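Fig. S4 source data, part A: sequence.
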Amino acid sequence: MGETADIDWKENGVRVIPGDSLDSNTPQTPGMNRAAAIDFARAGAQKLWAGTVHIHPDAKTGAHHHGALESVIYVLRGRARMRWGNTLEFVAEAGPGDFIFVPPYVPHQEINASATETLECVLVRSDNEAVVVNLDIAGVERPETVAWVDPIHRIKGAG
C-alpha cells in the first residue's frame, strides 16, 4: 500500500459540501453573488477553488480579472454574455451546458443576457485562493462578437 497506508481516509478523504451550505464570505464583484463550495478552509483543497455564481436578470458585473488564476465557468441556467479585453471590446455568449474558459489576467465582465431569468453557473479556479481584482474600465459601446471555436471544431463557412 506504500505511503498512503497510514492515512486516515475518514478524516482526509472525500468531502461532500451540501448545496445549501456554501460560503458567500468570498471576494465579490459588483453585480454577482459568488459562494465558495470547495477551498482550503472548507475542504482542504490545495490547488483549486470551486463554487457558484448567480447574476440577477438583466444585470452585469463590474470589470475584473483573477490574477494568475485560470477560471472555468459552466452555465447551468440562463444565458451568459461575456465581454473581455482592455476595453471589454470582445463579446461572446454561452448557454446551459456550455463551458467558458478565462485565462489568467484577462479583464472580463459577466452579463446576464436574459431580462427575466437568473444566470446560474458553477465556477472552478486553478488555486484555492479566491483572487478577484476589480477594475475601473469604461467598455467600448459596440464590442466585436467572437465565435468560440477551437482548432478542431470550426464554424461552418469559416476558413
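Fig. S4 source data, part B ends here. The chain has a mean pLDDT of 87.
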